[in-house]
Amino acid sequence: MDTMTLWHITGWEFAALAFAALLVGFSKTAVSGANTVSLAVFAAVLPARASTGVLLPVLIAGDVLAVLTYRRHAHWPTLWRLFPAVAGGVVAGTVFLMWADDGIVRTSIGAILLLMAAVTVWRRRAADAERDPDAVVTRGGRIQARSYGVLGGFTTMVANAGGPVMSMYLLAAGFRKLGFLGTSAFFFLIVNVSKVPFSVGLGLIDGRSLLLDAALVAFVVPGALIGKWAVNRINQRLFEQLVIAATVVGGVQLLLP
User: Fold this and answer.
1) HEC string for the chain
2) Lowest mean pLDDT among 35-44, 104-113, 173-182, 190-199
3) Over 80: is that where the pLDDT of 115 sits?
């Protein structure tokens, strides 16, 4: 069956998905966390569970473009600290998806995102000095990395919503703009690719969903190019404010019925 007729997608609905795909590219190279809007659009146009499977390959395409753009700025000590905890979160998210309905998933993740945004704003205002990303090697840094890693793995598995959680962690760790984008680019490329077998096993990705992805990936590229152009024109303070704002918007959208 033609994927475009599988969910009876109209021209306007495809246009909405195309815009969401463009926003994925923009978020991967400019304002991480903005793709929570894409998540909401996909969930509104497609069945909620199916939307996560369609969105995942689109996200991976954006991750590849982000890695090609910011590969020199990744902070690998942070990544190695995060991956074991993220793996645990992905497994927990897979188990959660086996029994949780869409309403529980959306409410849980929306609440987590808003909590993370509030905690990050509070921590940054209370801090006496800027954090150093190398602080992840301390005991407190390791605990923080594990906590955010589990949450990031869980949210990215159940709703492709790990971006805002990890954005909050990287901001709290004191990453500057390019280091933030380079580290998150590699993080999400590796994590999203690792999610593919789980999504296939849950029936969220199949040949028909990939046909729709093939039509949408073309819109990721111009979004990434716009993001690359825009990021050089955004100062650090505005960058951080935009990331936090995108997280709050995404959390509120998930809590709305």
Assistant:
1) CCHHHHCCCCHHHHHHHHHHHHHHHHHHHCCCCCCHHHHHHHHHHCCHHHHHHHHHHHHHHHHHHHHHHHHHHCCHHHHHHHHHHHHHHHHHHHHHHHHCCHHHHHHHHHHHHHHHHHHHHHHHHHCCCCCCHHHHHCHHHHHHHHHHHHHHHHHHHHHCCHHHHHHHHHHHCCCCHHHHHHHHHHHHHHHHHHHHHHHHHCCCCCHHHHHHHHHHHHHHHHHHHHHHHHHCCCCHHHHHHHHHHHHHHHHHHHHCC
2) 104-113
3) no
Residue-wise pLDDT for 62-79, tens only, equals: 999 999 999 898 888 888
Among residues 78, 73, 190, the alpha carbon closest in space to that of 145 is found at 78
Q: What's the confidence (pLDDT) of residue 3?
A: 44
Assess contact for 87 and 202: CB atoms under 8 A: no
- pLDDT tens digit sequence for 79-99: 888 888 888 988 888 888 787
- Asked if residues 185 and 74 have their Cβ atoms less than 8 Å apart, the reply is yes
| Residue 78 exposure: Cα atoms within 13 Å on the Cβ side | 27
What contacts 78, CB < 8 A, 6 or more positions away?
133, 136, 145, 170, 173, 183
Q: Which one-letter amino acid corresponds to residue 20?
A: A
